[in-house]
Every structure is written in C-alpha cells, then in structure tokens.
C-alpha cells in the first residue's frame, strides 16, 4: 500500500462525512470558525499556501471582527513550519490539548 493510496482513502472517508454548504452558509462558517485545508503531496511546493495566506491576510484586514488567524502543524513537519515562518507567521507558546471519541483519529500513518 502506498502513502498516496492511504491518503486517498483517508481523504475519501473525511469527505464522505462532510456536508457541502451553500454560499451563504459557507460565508458564515468561514466568518465564525476554522477551515481545514489539505494539500495533496503532488500539489505542494507550488505556492498554493502563499496565495491562500495572502488572501486570508486581505480578508482579515477588511473584517474588524477578525483579530488574526491560527494554523496548526505537526511538530515534525519542519518543511511546513519553514513555509509558515517565511510567510510571516510566528510560532506561539501554546500547547494543543484534545479529546476525541473512541476510535476517532485524524491522522493515520501509512501501513
């Protein structure tokens, strides 16, 4: 089993549980919460994050209700961390805690 096929299956299961929002609801969801974005490996290192980051910066600057934005990254993903630092983001002092339902995992390593 390849990493790509594991990733494809993981994303397929995640997408199956998502509800597609209409434009009005999508706007409200973005205004009031987080958006999960996953970039497939073959599309990484092509400037996708840089363009998205600029877009978010512009939107945040225009909305007085937005104080900033936060991004979570795996501790060992040094390439992604370097990308975020290069974009102007700073590492914070926060530590993430979570509780998941039994059997729920958001990351499944390749077998």
Distance between the termini: 7 Å
Helix vs. strand class: mainly alpha
Largest sheet: none
State which percent range the strand residues make up. under 5%
Radius of gyration, in Å, reads 16 Å
Output the number of helix runs: 4
Mean pLDDT over all positions: 75
Q: Which geometry do the CA atoms define? A: globular
- Low-confidence parts lasting 5 or more residues at pLDDT below 50? none
Kindly state the number of beta strands: 0
Number of domains: 1
Q: Briefly, what is this?
A:
By secondary structure, the chain is an all-alpha fold. The protein contains four helices and no strands.
What does this structure look like?
With about 110 residues, the chain is mostly helical. It has one domain. It contains 4 helices and no strands. The radius of gyration is 16 Å and the shape is globular.
What's the helix and strand layout?
Elements (H helix, E strand, L loop, with lengths): L2 H14 L6 H10 L15 H15 L15 H10 L24
Structure keywords:
111 residues, mainly alpha
